[in-house]
């Protein structure tokens, strides 16, 4: 029985190959005059910045470009970016890149509109008014950050990840142009794609799943399962690239729209990513089968539906067998895409696992996990993945 649920939709979403060359009248709707581009060195090296800049300049003045964004965005980078934005007198932030530049841009807007310290706004719904406008142009198909109400920023001093959640953080416009993802190398294509898959799975099995997020999550699982291998191994093919870009956007809507439904895999991935330089998607890929195993006893029918969405034929077999096949199918997808399967191979020392488990236990993502987890449970999952 459905008692209550919430679902919020925020950004306008536009999809088209080559769209970035002329975004057009949607920029005028934002009422801005001076754009600041926020990107990272990877985007700059891929030659994407010149293209995005030229496309923007058909409709708006570009007042500056900020590319000092590290792979796991940091509090210091956000502060530097906000300072630069003030110097440029910008009234529109255009983020180009993966999760790090997009989350950096989101957090910069907090400082630009509200001032103060970033830490003051960590948590849920601490923003009370719209921030300066933002366009998000993803160059990876994974985070879904272009449509989410979330930003995750690393506190490089405390070595933890800070999570910010507010509908005001969501961008105003998301530009999905699959041509921008063609240059993404296979390893990052796979890791970011699995991040999107985890968003969809954790949203679907989480405690605040609802009919709207369910439909989005299942569609995303289907699209990712059918396209991630092709996008990884035939990166120049625009078709699977486009499918993955749309799927990661849908998965982002699924977990963010209901208020932020993630789970134990993200709780651990955040803890590991805070303590070590490991790509968020890679950490998720390693942890996913173990997190699914742990959660499957709490909501078996949900995991059976995921298995069927993954193409597992139930054929009258016991539900446990169908679920096990679904988890195996996910494991096989990560292996086929060349992703690592062990934390030990990612320079995570075994003696760090207790601290990681402790940090993960306090992560907001755990609040919507379908099965309550103790410290021992979280540590056991981390050990299994090590
Ligand atoms: Fe994620």
Structural notes for this entry:
The protein has 386 residues and is an alpha/beta fold. The chain has helices at 25-29, 41-45, 48-57, 75-88, 99-114, 186-205, 211-233, 238-257, 264-275, 280-296, 300-309, 319-336, 353-361, 375-385, and strands at residues 12-15, 34-38, 61-66, 92-97, 123-124, 134-138, 150-155, 160-165, 173-176. The chain has a 6-stranded parallel β-sheet with strand order 1-9-6-4-2-3, with helices on both faces. The chain has a 3-stranded mixed β-sheet with strand order 5-8-7, with helices on both faces. The mean pLDDT is 94. Fe (ii) ion (FE2) binds next to helix 6.
Class based on secondary structure composition and strand pairing? alpha/beta
Rounded mean pLDDT is 94
Number of strands: 9
Shape: globular
**Rg computed from alpha carbons, rounded to a whole number of angstroms:** 20 Å
Contiguous helical run count: 14
Distance between the termini: 39 Å
Poorly predicted parts: none
The main sheet comes to: 6 strands, parallel
- How much of the sequence is in beta strands? 5-15%
Biggest sheet, spatial arrangement of strands: 1-9-6-4-2-3
């Amino acid at each position: 029985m459905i008692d209550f649920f919430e679902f919020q939709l925020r950004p306008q979403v536009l999809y088209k190959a080559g769209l970035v060359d002329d975004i057009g009248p949607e920029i005028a709707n934002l009422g801005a005059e001076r754009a600041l581009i926020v990107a990272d060195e990877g985007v700059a090296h891929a030659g994407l910045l010149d293209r995005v800049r030229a496309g923007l300049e058909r409709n708006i003045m570009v007042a500056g470009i900020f590319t000092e964004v590290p792979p796991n965005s940091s509090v210091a980078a956000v502060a530097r970016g906000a300072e630069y934005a003030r110097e440029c007198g910008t009234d529109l932030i255009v983020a180009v890149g993966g999760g790090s530049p997009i989350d950096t841009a989101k957090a910069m807007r907090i400082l630009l509109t509200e001032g103060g310290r970033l830490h003051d706004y960590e948590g849920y719904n601490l923003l009370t008014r719209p921030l300066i406008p933002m366009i998000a142009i993803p160059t990876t198909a994974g985070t879904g950050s272009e449509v989410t109400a979330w930003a995750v920023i690393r506190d490089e001093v405390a070595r933890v990840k800070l999570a910010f959640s507010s509908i005001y953080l969501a961008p105003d416009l998301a530009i999905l142009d699959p041509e921008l993802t063609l240059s993404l190398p296979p390893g990052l294509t796979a890791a970011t794609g699995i991040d999107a898959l985890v968003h969809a799975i954790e949203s679907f099995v989480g405690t605040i799943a609802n009919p709207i997020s369910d439909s989005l999550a299942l569609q995303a699982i289907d699209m990712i399962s059918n396209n991630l291998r092709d996008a990884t191994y035939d990166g120049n093919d625009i078709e699977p690239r486009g499918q993955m870009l749309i799927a990661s956007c849908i998965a982002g809507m699924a977990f963010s729209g209901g208020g932020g439904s993630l789970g134990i895999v993200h709780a651990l991935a955040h803890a590991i990513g805070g303590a070590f330089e490991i790509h968020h998607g890679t950490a998720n890929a390693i942890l996913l089968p173990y997190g699914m195993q742990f959660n499957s006893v709490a909501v078996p029918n949900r995991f059976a539906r995921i298995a069927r969405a993954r193409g597992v034929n139930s054929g009258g077999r016991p539900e446990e067998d169908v679920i096990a096949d679904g988890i195996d199918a996910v494991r096989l997808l990560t292996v086929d895409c060349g992703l690592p399967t062990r934390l030990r191979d990612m320079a995570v020392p075994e003696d760090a696992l207790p601290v990681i488990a402790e940090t993960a236990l306090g992560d907001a993502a755990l609040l919507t996990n379908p099965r309550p987890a103790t410290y021992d449970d979280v540590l056991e999952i981390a050990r299994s993945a090590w």
